[in-house]
Amino acid sequence: ALARECPAPQEVLVALAALAGEGGPLPSPQAAVELSLGRAQDQGDIRLVRRKSEIWYFSSLSMSDTYALHLARAADSDKVLLIAETVRDESRIYPRPTDPRCFSDPPFGLVPDEIDEALSQIRQRPETADISFCTASNGAVYLYSKEFLEERLAESLAEWIEVGQKENP
Asked: Is 62 helix (H, G, I), strand (E, B) or coil?
């Protein structure tokens, strides 16, 4: 599971004081987190995702780095940036356009109205000016980043995903 760094309650701090050594001073919440993370990282599977002012910890035995990043993005309240950042990643890494319907699936869990509202805001916000829309011949809309995909390639890939693959099993 993904765990967000947050101030620990007093009883947890008392338990974590043992990490600092017997009779040592009670650590601050941040120090307690750092101590526990240091011990956990000794196991080699603990990773972190930084989002704005938050740090999220996860085990690579439980999820991939990408899935953890998606979970952390989904926890943010800005659905427009969630979609835009994910579209940029898809365009840069794979490269391919993104079907906005995927944002209703885990780990995103957006409802169709939230997706529609975010898509309309993407067209208006300056920080998402690189996000463009393309439409396959069956009417399916896809998103892509102009920074990483050219329009013709995005359109061609969207057409292949929506129509070509289904007609060429």
From this structure: coil
Q: How far apart (Å, rounded) are the C-alpha atoms in residues 123 and 100?
A: 14
Angle at 26 between CA 23 and CA 30, to 5 degrees: 140
161: nearest Cα among 67, 79, 94 = 94
Sequence-ordered list of residues with C-beta below 8 angstroms from that of 146, at least 6 positions apart, any chain: 130, 131, 132
In the numeric block, the tokens 């990483």 are attached to 148
pLDDT digits (tens, 9 = 90+) for 38-56: 655 566 777 778 777 677 7
Q: Is 89 exposed, middle or buried (0-12, 13-18, 19+ CB in 10 A)?
A: middle
Q: Which helix (H) or strand (E) holds 48?
A: strand 46-51
Helix (H) or strand (E) holding 154: helix 151-159
CA-CA distance, 102 to 115, in Å (whole number)? 10
* Eight-state DSSP code of residue 123: T
pLDDT tens by residue, 104-128: 999 899 999 999 999 999 999 999 9
Q: Quick check: helix, strand or coil at residue 6?
A: coil
User: How many other CB atoms sit within 10 Å of the CB of residue 135?
Assistant: 13
